[in-house]
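Interim report to the steering committee. The following record documents the input for Endonuclease/Exonuclease/phosphatase family protein (272 residues).
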Amino acid sequence: MASRRWFVLVAWLLAATALLGGSVAPPARAVRLLQLNLCASGQAGCYTGRSIDVAARVIRATRPDVVTLNEICEGDIDTLGSVLAGVHGGPVASGFRAAPDRPSGGPTRCGRNGQAYGIGLIARAPTTPHEVVGGEYPVQDPVDPEERVWLCLLAAVDVCTTHLAGFDSEAALHQCQHLFGVTLPALHRRAGYRPTIVAGDLNLRYGAPPDLRPCIPAGYRWLGDGALQHVLATRDLAEPTTRPVDLDRSTDHPGLLVTVGLTNGGSGTGAT
């Protein structure tokens, strides 16, 4: 499967470049995204100290084109970005968004190293113009000091990640609705519409309380891990497929590996 950055690979499809190692090959018809919640802050009960190393092994094994990351420290972006660059033999694009800490007014900090804590993404660098944007949600859990954020890499396909409120389902649902109902439409108006994929730990379930379904726009397809991690992709991309990825109990979530065709019709879905 072609993997790791739906928007990057669309750009590379148009440029007729290969997925692997930069060599010339037939255009990719599908790309792969890896969603990871790594519980890497050093403070939560799910922290094992092993998830970054396990994530590196999984990236080498699955060869994704884009990796969306939740519950990481800022330095983990460089660590895992270097792994992805080594896998594909070329540069990566990346972004990080710290989760604000309400009491201090600064970023939430990782207990294991004092770095900023938040969400991120890494991807094979697009050959077309691109930018990284992010922001905070206007509604937050009033009790949790960690405020929740979103992050997008905008290119030929927009890829976003987020980690929604974990202790207040009403806040999580409001954040989800704001992302799909306000933030993404605003980005599409500003930069022009592109196919869009959102992956992350939404702290909402599909079909059971707290239910994700009221948040899903009509123009998106849904995939999930059976629990709290979800991927939503606009229907102008081919129908995606997914499988869980074992992270060897290094975190409290499995990885979620998603493959999507670059054009609707499904011809690229599941391609290798």
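The helical segments are 6-15, 51-62, 74-88, 169-191. The committee is asked to note this result when reviewing the revised timeline.
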